[in-house]
Structure formats: C-alpha cells, structure tokens
Amino acid sequence: MADTTHTQSGNRRLPRIGAWGVTATLLLLIFIFDTPRFAPSLVFLAEALAGTAPFILFAVLAVAYLKATGSETLLAKAFSGHQARMIVMAALLGGLSPFCSCEVIPFIAALLAVGAPLGAVMAFWLASPLMDPAMFAITSGTLGWEFATAKAMSAIGLGMLGGFGTMLFARTPVFTNPLRERPAVGGCCSVKKPFSGTPLWRFWQETDRRETFRHTAQENALFLLKWLTLAYVIEAMMLAYVPAELIAGLLGGTGVWPIVMGALVGAPAYLNGYAAVPLVDALLAQGMAPGAAMSFVIAGGVSCIPAAIAVWALVKPKVFVAYLVYALIGSVIAGLAWQMIA
Fold first, then answer.
1. Which ranges of the sequence are coiled-coil (predicted)?
2. Is the dihedral of CA 202, 205, 210, 211 positive or negative?
3. Strand, helix or coil at 179?
C-alpha cells in the first residue's frame, strides 16, 4: 500500500506540540512582547516548582508503590453485595484510588459487561477523576490541607449523589440499556494490565513489579512536571496580565451566582486536574470566591477531556448527559458547602 501521508498538503495533520510546546510558546511570547517580564516569569516558575517538589516526590512514590503492589485488585470488592453498599464503597474507592480516567476505562468496561449495577459504576466514575493520592498532595501543597480534604470529601459526596440518583431512576428511559453496542475502550495514556490476585506489598521481590514501580514513577514524574510547568507559566501570566478586578467581578463576592459561574466556567475550560491547581491559586489571589474555586475544580475535574472521553466511550449519549448533570449539580452543592465553612 502506498504511503499517502505526503501526497497532498491538504491532508496533512498539523503536528501536536503538546504541553511542553505550549509552555515554550508562552515563554517565547513573553520574551518577544514583554522582555522585562521574562526573567521574573522564569524565577516564579523555578520557585513554584521547588516549593511543590516534596509533594510531587511523595505523590510519585505513593502511586508507584500502589501500582507495583497490585492494590487495584482491591477495587473489585467494591462491586459485590447490596447495591447501596456498592455505591458507597465505589464512591470511597473512586475518590481515593490512584488511577487516572484512562486507566479505569477497561476496568469499568469489564464491570458493565458482566452486569455490575450502573449506580455503583456511576459513583466510581464521578469520584475517580477528582481525587487521588497525587492530586491530594499537589492540592494540599498549593491550596492547603483544608481545601484538599474538602475536595476529597466532595468527590466522595458527588459519587454517592450520582450513584444513588442513578439507582433511584434506574428504570427510567435515561438509564435503561445504557451501553454502546461496541464500546471503545482506548485511552489517552499507557494502560498496562493490572496484577491479579492478592496484592504483594513487598513488590521488590518480583522483577515485573519492580519494573512496574520504575515505569510508573518515571511516567508520573514526567506527567506532573509537564503539566505543572505549563500551569505555573500560565499562573505567572494571569497574575501579570489579567486584571484582578475582572476575576473579582466575574467569580468573586458572596451568594450562589459566583459558585454557579465557577461550575459553568470550570466545566468547559478545565483540561487537567494537576494544571488546574496553580490556576485556581492565581484566581483566588485575584478575588475568586472560595466557593467558586471549589465548584470550578469539581465541575472541571468530572468534565475534563480524559474523564469525559472515558464515559462517552462506553455509554450512550443519554447517560453521558446525566453524568454531566450530576457533575454540575454536585459541584454547586460542594461550592455552597465550602463557601459556608471556608
């Protein structure tokens, strides 16, 4: 078969520059159009990364250990027994599991295929992209332990909201026959087959597990460094170029409206949970209401591209819409709760 990739210039795809490319482009633009700001931007980036480094290291090692031991096999226990118990356990494990949205696609696909209740699956799906050990470490290091804990509790609460809501309306047209005929289970990251059986906590006794630890640690370290570097550059630009009055006018103040706006803005604008943490920090410094910050990270985390693709790949559009509705309602509730106690 002939190579057709270079036959017509109109068919060529533009190269994907990725997060590193975007970071370099932003720094280049600063250098060209605001040269005096270039050096301070680099200093801000270096100081921010240095301050976050201990949390990055802890997150990388914790996730690598959990993956190498095969502790993901414990997740299966959440999907057995009474459905209400399953929903609670699925929400708890989803909010604490160390797996990205792409990695849970095969796991969820298998559960749906064998008839696991959609309510329990929905609970896990909603909670999973919002919090994991790495996310908790990064969030607590930047926004504080209180915010990170509140987000973790919100993730669990959102999971139970979606799970019990789905169970309650299971017989309605929205949730009957929810699966696509041929679900696509691809992902955006490399997904290895998990270890089966009982977790081996002394993983270094087996070569495959040592390799999994090394690979996972390396992959997550590069992932976090890539996205946090981009986020800190954007944070520096926001602090320098976005008027604080604009943020305060749109997302500041008291009442329900800033929280609703935080959810509506966060849902389409949020691309990566780790990158969002420094951005929220900058928004808070410019007058964003605490409740709006919480609704932003909750709505954005559930509707971010990897998480949304994971759901869209497996279920029909009506269930996907329900997933987004749960995200918006839950994010507003979380924002209101945090606004009262922050």
1. none
2. negative
3. strand
Q: What 8-state DSSP symbol labels residue 338?
A: H
Closest CA to 26 of 51, 285, 34: 34
**Which residues pair with residue 315 across a beta bridge?**
179
Cα angle 183, 185, 189 (rounded to 5 degrees) comes to 160
> What is the residue type of 310?
A
Say what the pLDDT of residue 138 is.
Answer: 86
Q: How high is the pLDDT of residue 149? A: 94
Q: CA angle 290-293-299, nearest 5°?
A: 140
Residue 8 domain-assigned? no
Do residues 116 and 170 touch, judged by C-beta distance below 8 A?
no
Q: Average pLDDT for residues 216-243, to the nearest whole number?
A: 81
Indicate yes or no: pTM above 0.70. Answer: no
Q: Tell me whether residue 213 is in a domain.
A: yes
Is residue 31 a part of any domain in this protein?
A: no
- Residue 275 to residue 272: CA distance in whole angstroms: 5
